[in-house]
Specification:
The chain is of the alpha+beta class and about 500 residues long. Helices cover about 15% and strands about 30% of the residues. Helix 2 (about 30-35) packs across helix 5.
């Protein structure tokens, strides 16, 4: 139609004339800007993710226009929110404010959901097979780590500071008593939970959590082990406890994912805690993957043992916020996922002593005052795969069960952004194919193969444990799902 080229030519003429006059560029669409800058922390609907709901008119730093604009402009460093004053014009910031106000009115009218309802059973047809995503146990708050124990028992670390017990598919109403008290804020709270490889004999469980520091408002990741006796956490011992100088007021990037190797070494991840430069300093535990003996002692063959001033538990450096660790069942090599800044989330092959780049090299765009030089850097490892926009990769699992034979040795990645579960096919150290198995059903934080060969997921917003079941007649060894146990009454 002739009107199309005419309009295009008119637009070009006006834009070119504006450029000659030195006119400022048109402000970007506020809905698109909120997608780029806000949903990564505040959730797809802006109703809450790792950061609070932006639409409920509950503001920590003032809810009037100027207070909100000040937060957008200057950020909130102690809460892990970056400043956007250098990336947005004043008009664009006011556009975002107006967009938030409009979305708040829609939220108040019930037109924007707070969270996605927990499905009881949803059929999914993937590239290779059909399966059902079933709710296994609910309700939970923010389940983080899943542990299977003998006797058809499951433990779940819940970020609010609880270890919950699931017996034969039934969520028990009371959490384990006398567990350590975390700082629950933003990324902080209870993190991963893992059982010792010889748990049946020694009963050790390992827990990571954000511990309050000696100075008010500070916190840091702490790793402990303990045992459960008659529903009580007992015999606690320290595995890792940082010096107080590493306890920050920032409440982001605690890590922490666990993994035992075949020799019984414990690996654990620590995020950079918002201090990007620390990830390159071997004197700091931040932004690293660590390796210790099961009692916290330092293995003498760790790569930085004997280096002056080094934190000797370090296995690798330059890891911004790794939340997935797993060995490939065929190659025996270690893989890890890592959160990028804005985009540039990574899947890495992990080797001792290597430098994984953060913050010097990243496929993402900087936040805060980070100094990214480019996507690669000599002497630093490049990721096997990366994702932009961000998918916020959490736990990973190479599937070795027999209930999904076509997925044997495939890598599954729990993703917080997009609320998705990814399936990757690998060939040696390469990723040769990727598939999103589902999306939009809740933030996926942990993925574990159960003793029954099914794939279990810790899912947030809403909090629940779900599982993937082949879409076929239910075999006799998989019981029908029990009715969810009602939530316990509020604590006094």
């Amino acid at each position: 139609m002739p009107t199309v080229p005419f309009r295009a030519a008119l637009y070009f003429t006006v834009a070119f004339a504006s450029t000659l006059r030195g006119a400022a560029p048109q402000p970007r669409d506020p809905a698109r800007l909120s997608t780029e800058f806000c949903v990564g922390c505040h959730g797809v609907n802006l109703t809450g993710g790792t950061a609070p709901n932006l639409l409920d008119n509950i503001w920590k730093s003032g809810g009037d226009d100027e207070s909100i604009l000040r937060s957008i402009r200057a950020g909130a460093p102690q809460a892990g929110m970056q400043a956007f004053g250098a990336e947005l014009t004043e008009e664009e910031m006011r556009g975002i404010l107006g967009y938030l106000r409009r979305q708040s009115r829609r939220f108040a009218l019930g037109l924007i959901p707070t969270s996605i309802p927990a499905p009881i059973s949803v059929g999914v047809k993937s590239e290779q097979l059909a399966f059902r995503l079933e709710t296994f146990a609910a309700p939970l708050d923010t389940p983080w780590g899943i542990v299977f124990l003998p006797g058809d028992q499951m433990l779940v670390s819940d970020r609010i500071g609880e270890i919950r017990v699931i017996e034969k598919g039934v969520l028990q109403p009371a959490p384990i008593r006398d567990t350590p008290k975390p700082m629950v804020r933003q990324d902080g709270g209870y993190l991963d939970l893992i059982a010792h490889p010889d748990y049946a004999r020694n009963g050790w469980l390992y827990l990571a959590y954000s511990e309050p520091g000696e100075n008010p408002g500070t916190s840091m990741t702490r790793v402990v082990r303990g045992k459960i006796r008659d529903g009580v956490w007992v015999d606690q011992q320290d595995i890792f406890k940082a010096e107080q100088k590493n306890y920050y007021t920032d409440t982001s990037h605690y890590g922490c994912r666990f993994l035992f190797d075949r020799a019984g070494h414990l690996f654990f991840t620590l995020g950079d805690r918002g201090d990007a430069a620390a990830a390159q300093e071997i004197s700091s535990p931040l932004g690293k993957i660590h390796r210790v003996f099961d009692d916290g002692r330092i293995p003498p063959d760790n790569p930085f043992v004997g280096r002056a001033g080094a934190c000797e538990s370090i296995w690798t450096i330059g890891n911004r916020h790794a939340q997935g660790l797993q060995y490939h069942p065929v190659t025996g090599r270690l893989w890890a996922t890592e959160h990028g800044p804005r985009g540039g989330d990574e899947l890495n092959r992990i080797e001792p002593g290597r430098n994984y780049g953060w913050p010097t090299a990243s496929q993402g765009q900087p936040q805060r005052d980070e100094k990214i030089e480019g996507p690669t850097h000599e002497g630093m490892e490049s990721p096997v795969a990366w994702w932009t926009p961000s998918v916020a990769p959490a736990a990973i699992e190479f599937y070795t069960g027999d209930r999904f034979p076509r997925w044997k040795n495939n890598l599954f990645i729990a993703c917080l952004m997009g609320q998705q579960l990814k399936r990757l096919e690998t060939d040696g150290d390469k990723v040769v194919h990727q598939e999103i198995l589902f999306a939009g059903m809740g933030r996926v934080r942990d993925v574990v193969t159960g003793p029954d060969g099914l794939i279990y997921l810790a899912m947030n917003t809403p909090g629940r444990i779900a599982r993937l079941v082949p879409d076929a007649p239910r075999p006799p060894d998989i019981p029908a799902l029990p009715e969810p146990v009602p939530a316990p009454p509020p604590k006094p």
